[in-house]
Design brief:
This protein is mainly β. It contains no helices and 12 strands. The chain starts with a strand and ends with a strand.
């Protein structure tokens, strides 16, 4: 019914850039909130950035000034632009959506729709 598909992952060197895409089917991002999460090797999942239905955003302190987001409503696709990548950014990146609390927190516990994830290995 609802499908989120991430793409754009791949190996990149420290200092490089990468753009991830999240395409939605059976769901409209503009009517709810979208979040990006990641899980590094041996680490727990953490929130990267989320966006409310009104366009307001919240970023994790670790990515502020380096990561940005954008969207194409016509394509129902959300983008995560990652710049100045560091080895500690390595992990599996997921996009997610939630329409239960309408608060779009950085905590992933309340998100009810998830993509399969895309790997981003950052080498030093």
């Amino acid at each position: 019914q609802v499908r989120l598909v991430e793409s754009g992952g791949g190996s990149v060197q420290s200092g490089g850039s990468l753009r991830l895409s999240c395409a939605a089917s059976g769901y409209t991002f503009s009517t709810t909130c979208i979040g990006w999460f990641r899980q590094g090797p041996g680490k727990e999942r953490e929130g990267v950035v989320t966006q409310n239905w009104d366009g307001s955003t919240r970023y994790a302190d670790s990515v502020k000034g380096r990561f940005t987001i954008s969207q194409d409503n016509a394509k129902n696709t959300h983008y995560l632009h990652m710049n100045s990548l560091k080895p500690e950014d390595t992990g599996i990146y997921y996009c997610a959506a939630e329409d239960t609390t309408w608060l779009c927190p950085l905590s992933g516990a309340v998100y009810n729709y998830w993509g399969q994830g895309t790997q981003v290995p950052v080498s030093s």
